[in-house]
């Protein structure tokens, strides 16, 4: 009989008494609720596919809402027509660039104005906050021109509403 080194011995498995072993909890089978449909197996029932979108469902009365996005395309065209070049056109790519520019500027001004309101611990965003945000976000002469045009637009609006 060959001698076996102590390190080469295989450990024997430890036997645990049956009382100490825990069994996983057994889930009770789900109860069937009474339904108004026929009790035919699912394969036997006719399968009708639902329409891909609610707008396609006939008589559903629901329409899919378009994704909300700020677009300034209409206003860019109005400004383009109000200038001296009424017959001038703009390409779709240029319109998209202008629209992106307008969205970016709106976000910058809104972020700056909101920060001003937060710093002043005010509850209301005023026209003074918008003016200050314009002065902070826009460079030099452009900020002065924006403030003048904004004041002119507010005055025109107040005259028209009264």
DSSP helix fraction: 40-55%
Distance between the termini: 114 Å
Tally of helical runs: 4
Note the run of SSEs as H and E. HHHH
Radius of gyration: 36 Å
| Category by helix and strand content | mainly alpha
Unreliable stretches covering 5 or more consecutive residues: none
Strand content: under 5%
Shape: elongated
Q: Main sheet?
A: none
Walk me through the structure.
The protein is mainly alpha-helical. The chain is 44% helix and 0% strand. It contains 4 helices and no strands. α2 crosses α3. The N and C termini lie far apart (114 Å).
Summarize the topology.
Blueprint: H1 73-82, H2 92-119, H3 127-137, H4 140-161
Helix pairs in contact: 2-3, 3-4
Short description:
This protein is mainly alpha-helical and 162 residues long. It is built from four helices and no strands.
Q: Any key phrases for this structure?
A:
elongated, 162 residues, mainly alpha
């Amino acid at each position: 009989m060959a001698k076996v080194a102590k390190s080469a011995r295989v450990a024997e498995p430890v036997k645990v008494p049956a009382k100490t072993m825990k069994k996983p909890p057994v889930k009770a089978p789900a109860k069937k609720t009474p339904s108004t449909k026929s009790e035919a197996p699912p394969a036997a029932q006719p399968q009708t596919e639902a329409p891909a979108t609610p707008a396609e469902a006939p008589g559903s009365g629901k329409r899919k809402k378009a994704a909300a996005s700020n677009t300034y395309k209409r206003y860019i065209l109005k400004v383009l027509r109000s200038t001296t070049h009424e017959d001038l056109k703009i390409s779709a790519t240029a319109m998209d660039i202008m629209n992106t520019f307008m969205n970016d500027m709106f976000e910058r001004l809104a972020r700056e104005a909101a920060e001003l309101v937060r710093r002043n611990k005010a509850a209301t965003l005023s026209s003074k906050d918008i003016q200050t945000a314009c002065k902070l976000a826009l460079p030099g002469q452009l900020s002065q021109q924006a403030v003048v045009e904004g004041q002119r637009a507010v005055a025109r609006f107040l005259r028209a509403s009264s």
